[in-house]
Amino acid sequence: MRGHKNTSGVSRRPAVLHLVCIAAFLSLFVFAIQSSFFSGDRSLDLYKEEIRTLSNFQFSVQQCVANRGLGLTAHIIDHCKLTLKFPPGTNSTWYNEQFKIFEPLEYHYDVCDAILLWEQYRNMTTVLTREYLDTRPDGWLDYAAKRIAQLGTDKCYNQTLCEEHLNLILPAKPPFRPRQFKTCAVVGNSGDLLKTEFGKEIDSHDAVIRDNEAPVNVKYAKHVGLKREFRLVVRGAARNMVKILNGSTDEVLIIKSVTHRDFNAMIKNIPNPVYLFQGIVLRRGAKGTGMKSIELALSMCDIVDIYGFTVDPGYTEWTRYFSTPRKGHNPLQGRAYYQLLECLGVIRIHSPMRAQRKQDWSDVPSREMISRAHAAALRLKRGQGPGQFGSCKVWGNIDTNNNGPISGSSDMSEVRKYSNYNKWEVMPFESLRKEARDHFVQMEGVSLYKMDGNKLDDLVCVRHSSKSEV
User: Fold this and answer.
1) 30, 105, 116, 181 from 349: Cα distances, Å
2) How large is the average pLDDT for residues 294-314?
């Protein structure tokens, strides 16, 4: 009996200890949750000024959409997130074959991410350069190969061969600088341009950016103007480009994605400057060459006006002002995103529905308000982080005496040897407008390049010697 009793007592004690351990664990778990909760409260309290700034900014964006959105409405979720909705009854005609659905009538955006991304573009170069390939750790071996079609290999095991492919379009350093132009017009190809007479207004800009095979001639002059500084082109447009250029030797061609034999053969026989777009992948709600043209413009211009992007509702197919209708990009999704960008102060939209009224930009948030919102979003993202170079993941330096040759190759034609790219690549620092020079000083002589994708924290940053620039 006694032995049995002792055994029972011993078996109960571990059970009690087990229960005590469970209770202690639960207590610690509850404490951890409470600590996390109150820590979150403290964190929000710490950034209450930033949240207030962003909330005020969201309200301004909401008012801007209400005034300028032509039926769109903005619904605020919190200090960063909002939803843009089309009015009930909007005709959603764009069918997505992949997901077997028609375009939705509402789109969700993170304004904090958007303002960080697009303000960053104002400080970046979007043209591929030799300094970028030299500085990026995998620049020549992996990245360069992705930009050369028909290379026959996925890596540049032979750098000399890759250089031969790229030399024609590869400047030593950025040929265009942030703030170089005050105003730029980005002219899309929409058939809606035929409903307007924006020609003289477009030509009044410091620089005009056009897409692909869009003709510039007397026939369309009153609708799209005659001025031509830059043209972003896709691979398929190479065979028609000489005809499209029609003697315009100053117009800069920027290849959208990859270079290839057709392009190289054409380049050697034209005097126009030709470069390769760096190839940033943007999956932010609008696609196509027009979106890339806006990225290019924002990296060079203070004010970006867009024309011919079919940003208004009521159409059922994508049209071009110079050809028959064809399938294009998602019209509702693009219109919503462009409207968001306008109310973030990134672009200014010009369209047929606004052509007859005076353009008043007072309902778009001011640069001062946008700057405050950008600073607040940056502090929320990084804490009290490392300033203007906080997104630099790779650093490099350019030797004063090693700027490299301007674009070109040994087998250029006589026409190409006297190409007008010289005026960009040897442009004296003093010839830039004051705002561009001030920006260079503010950025401490650093060129910012995007690496890949949409991440904000993946810049390649190259510091130039001020002696070589000034």
Assistant:
1) 53, 20, 21, 18
2) 85
User: Order of strands across the sheet with 392-397?
Assistant: 392-397, 459-463, 446-450
Whether residue 219 has pLDDT greater than 90: yes
The per-residue pLDDT for 38 is 38
Q: Are 219 and 322 in contact (CB under 8 A)?
A: no
The pLDDT-based confidence of 385 (bands split at 50, 70, 90) is low
Going by C-alpha positions, the residue among 142, 143, 161 that lies closest to residue 151 is 161
Pairing of strands 207-211, 230-233: parallel
**pLDDT single digits (tens) 362-376:** 899 999 999 999 999
The sign of the dihedral angle between the CA atoms of 464, 207, 257, 275 is negative
Q: Output the CA torsion sign for 233, 239, 240, 243.
A: positive
- Give the integer Cα–Cα distance in Å for 111 and 119: 12
The candidate with the shortest Cα–Cα distance to 67, out of 454, 349, 293, is: 349
Contacts of 114 (CB under 8 A, 6+ apart): 284, 340, 341, 344
H-run or E-run covering 467: helix 466-469
Question: Bridge-partner residues for 459, per DSSP?
Answer: 392, 450
Residue 168: what pLDDT?
A: 86
Sequence-ordered alpha helix ranges (H) in 232-313:
241-245, 261-267, 289-298
Rounded to 10 degrees, the C-alpha dihedral 236/240/244/246 comes to 150
